[in-house]
Amino acid sequence: MSQASMLGDIQAAISGSIAAIQEKIERLEQAKRDINAEQDQCTSEIKKIDQPALGNSWTGSRADSFDDSRDAALKEMERIVSEEYDSYIQSIENKIALLKIELAAAQAASAVAQGAERLLDKGEEFVEDVGNTINSLKGWLFN
């Protein structure tokens, strides 16, 4: 296989990798937006848990039991909305940050491959440099 065709294959693989990473980032960003929207909706729904107010006309053990259950539900919903949703969002943000690092590395590899193509275009005196660059790119792609 010629160095030019090998560089073309490497560049295509890097481009595919870049596209896949960008797609993952977009999907995670959409998931984060969806979770934020659901968190906002839940926050407004929490306010409805203690409605209607029981008032003085509802008394006795059943009223107390109902009020205790309603308070427990309210506390659990508040915990879920404030802790678990935030935990999911943080996890997504961490994954996005890692993918952005991966994306930067892939874009750097693409720039190196383009540089190797320019060297190859310059002629035979640069063939050894191109071979070294190709080997470096292979290491990046297959490790």
Mean pLDDT: 85
Please provide the count of β strands.
0
Shape: rod-shaped
Distance between the termini: 21 Å
β-strand percent reads: under 5%
| Count of separate DSSP helical elements | 3
Low-confidence segments, given as residue ranges, are: none
Radius of gyration: 28 Å
Structural class: mainly alpha
Keywords: Coiled coil
Coiled coil: 18-48
Pfam families: YwqH-like (PF16888)
Protein name: DUF5082 domain-containing protein
List keywords for this structure.
143 residues, 3 helices, mainly alpha
Question: Can you walk me through this structure?
Answer:
With 143 residues, the chain is mainly α. The protein has one domain (3-142). The protein has 3 helices and no strands. It has helices at residues 3-46, 61-122, 127-142. 8% of the residues are buried. The model has no long low-confidence stretch (mean pLDDT 85).
Question: TL;DR?
Answer:
This protein has 143 residues and is an all-alpha fold. 85% of the residues lie in helices and 0% in strands.
Question: What is the secondary structure topology, with strand pairs?
Answer:
Elements: H1 3-46, H2 61-122, H3 127-142
Pfam family, one: YwqH-like
Keywords: Coiled coil
Protein name: DUF5082 domain-containing protein
